[in-house]
Structures are given as structure tokens and as C-alpha cells.
Amino acid sequence: MGDNFMDKQILSSIYHQKFPFWDSLNEADKEYILNNTAIKTCSKAKTIYDSSDDGGVIIIKNGSLRMYMISEDGKELTLMRIHKDDMCILSASCINESISFDVFIDVEEDVEYYFINNQTFNNINNKYSVARIFALETTIECISDMIWLIQQILFMSMDKRLAIFLLDEISRTNTDTVMLTHSLIAKYMGSAREVVSRMLKYFENEGIVELSRRGVKICDKKRLRELTI
Amino acid sequence: MGDNFMDKQILSSIYHQKFPFWDSLNEADKEYILNNTAIKTCSKAKTIYDSSDDGGVIIIKNGSLRMYMISEDGKELTLMRIHKDDMCILSASCINESISFDVFIDVEEDVEYYFINNQTFNNINNKYSVARIFALETTIECISDMIWLIQQILFMSMDKRLAIFLLDEISRTNTDTVMLTHSLIAKYMGSAREVVSRMLKYFENEGIVELSRRGVKICDKKRLRELTI
Hints:
Two copies of one chain form a homodimer.
Chain A: H1 2-18, H2 27-35, E1 37-42, E2 47-50, E3 56-70, E4 76-82, E5 87-88, H3 93-96, E6 104-117, H4 118-127, H5 129-155, H6 158-173, E7 177-178, H7 182-189, H8 193-205, E8 209-212, E9 215-218, H9 221-227
Antiparallel strand pairs in A: 1-6, 2-6, 3-4, 3-5, 3-6, 7-9, 8-9
């Protein structure tokens, strides 16, 4: 019971940090969520969720998840990585019911996560409009980022264009690091700084580059080359 | 003034129908929205909105709008058509601020629309959580439909595959109508009925086919052929 009490205190401070509405809940409802939080684990490469599943809210304790879509011929497009301390609300039914596209979530590194089941989360959402508004706003940001990414990759071929640019640069300078600011890269590519920065961030999440003040270090030349095809 | 009074009654009944939260507003706030609704017109082929504009809520009285995205080499992908009586909430700033992708809205047929400006809509959204929740939920449905469409077209080439199937069928049967149910089309294509139905609906909105109980009538063979390239 000592342990349990400790866990609840930790959990409570996590929720306090993650849910801007936490302080609006009465004590009984806070307890209700805490009591209905499970700690789950899942090992690498398992699919823990697809759109047909019964979901809930996930907060990563350790490890990481990858959300992606998959084409009929098996091509995958990574939409988002969910790391330690990140929250994923898309799989909650209150959100999922109004979502009409298919995503999958895989375990990328063995994962341990806090899980609030649908029933609990729905009850809170129905009782507190601040909670519902938070869930909806978080979702809009999340799927709007997805549209941005899909636009850039599938419609603008921005991943391909950036890959070609970076490979040209390291070949020209004979190094593994492109020592240019994002603004300059954007200028040379005829694009916008924000687009380049977000796409570089995506590459970094994919483990293809490493970003620092010095510039863009290429970590996985092979995958960068694959993007140019 | 008689006219004005009439207009307000009509407008009030439109809002009653469009906004599930209408009856939750007090009379003063209903008046406030009605008094801050403008009737605007815009003629064909003008862009009435891009993401950088100051927006608001649009309800179409007559005519139609087209929402699309555009690639750097000028390729367009129609995401949605907004017809008579449809509402568009995406352009409202309370929503727009959390949206990070770019869409454009063009006038397709001379349009007359009711327009609630951002300030008015925001004030109501801040005062009534039911209004905010409605705006957010409507947005999620709308952009989730967009992701579905982009997925199917850019990632699955479902528009291309369906176009090829339909052209093959009318060539085989030597008619202009494919007399098969959506389920059967899906079965033959190795897809799901829902995917086929939604994509056919998209084709219909694009003026490429006409759907009826008899089947799928091809109205614009030229555009259907263009999709197969």
C-alpha cells in the first residue's frame, strides 16, 4: 500500500503537468482517474493499437511508440513518434469516433505506459467541458500536424527535395555535416524556413540527421539516399 | 427595417439549425451574433481566403466554394466543396490558430454567404463551452475527412485505381454507366465498400460521375482518363 500511495502521488503530479484541467477536477474525480489508470507494458515491434481497437489515453513512462499509416502495397509513412513523457489522446474513443482515417501504433522501443481507459476518460470528458475542450484542441493540433507532414511528403516531395539538397551539400563540402542555417537551406531550396525546420525535425526523429548549432549532421546516409529515389 | 427584421428571423432559424448550441445562448448573445453577421458576396474564381487571412465562420446562402491545397509546382488537390447551406468553420481564428497546414478557398460559383467575424465568434466561444466544443468537434470531423482523402489519393492512389476500374467497365460493357453496387466494385477492386463509396462521392462532387440506384454514370470521361495517368 505504501508503494501504491507513492505511485499515486507521482501519477498525480504527472497528470497535473499533462492536463491543464487537472486542478478543475474535484478530489473524487481525481481519485477516480488515478484509480482507473493502469500501467501497461508492451514489447518492441508489437502493434498496440489500430483504429478498430478499444483505446484510451496513453502517457509514455519509458520507451517509444510510432504512429504511422500504411498503404495497400505495404508502404509505410511515419506520422509521429511518441516518446517518454509524451501523451497520445488520439486513441481515446471520444476522439476516435470522429476520426475517419486509419492509423497504426507500433512499439519502437519496449514501452511502459500509463493508460486511462475509454470509459474513465469519457466520463470525465462528459462531466467537465474543460477536459473535453483540452482533448479536442490537443487532437486538432495533432492531426493538423499530420496533414502538414503528409502534404509536405506526399504532395510537395519535400522529404525528397531536402534529402537531395543535403546529400549534394555533404558531397560538395566532403564532410558529414551541412553547416548552414535553416534559413539559408530554405533560401537555396526556394522554400520557407519553417518548412525546412519542421522537415529537418522529422528527419531527426527518424534518426536520419542530428541537429545542433553547428548545423545538420547526416547520421544515416543510406536512408537519406533512399528518400531521393 | 421591416426587411432587416425578416432577415434576422431567417438568419435566426438558420443558426438554430446549424448550431446545436443556439438554444443555450441567452437572448442578448443571440442578438449579438445576428447583429454581427454580414452578408457577403464574391464572384467566381476569386480566392476568398488563404491561411494568412483574418477569417470567420462562413455559411453559404448561394453558390459554392472549393477548398484545396496546392503544391509548389502548381498541382491542386481539392479537399472539399462547400455548397449552399454548408458551413465552414476552418477559417475561424479559434480553430485556425491550431492548424498548421495551408489550404485555400476559391469561389467556384458566384457566392453569397453569411459571415460571422472572428471577434464575434471568439467571444461566443469563450463564453459558452458548448459553442467551443461544437466548433472543435466540427473541425476534427472536417480535417479528419481531409486526411482520409489525402491518404486515399496521394498514398493509396485510390482515385487512379477507381478511375481505371470504371473506364475498364464502361469499355467492356460499351455503355456510360457502371451497373454494379459499391460493394461489388469494392470486391472486384480488392478494397472496402466504404472506401469505394466515399471515393465515388468525391468523384461526384468533382462532377466526374453521377450516382444513382442504377449505378455509376460517367459524366466526364476526359477527367476520369486524366486520373489514370
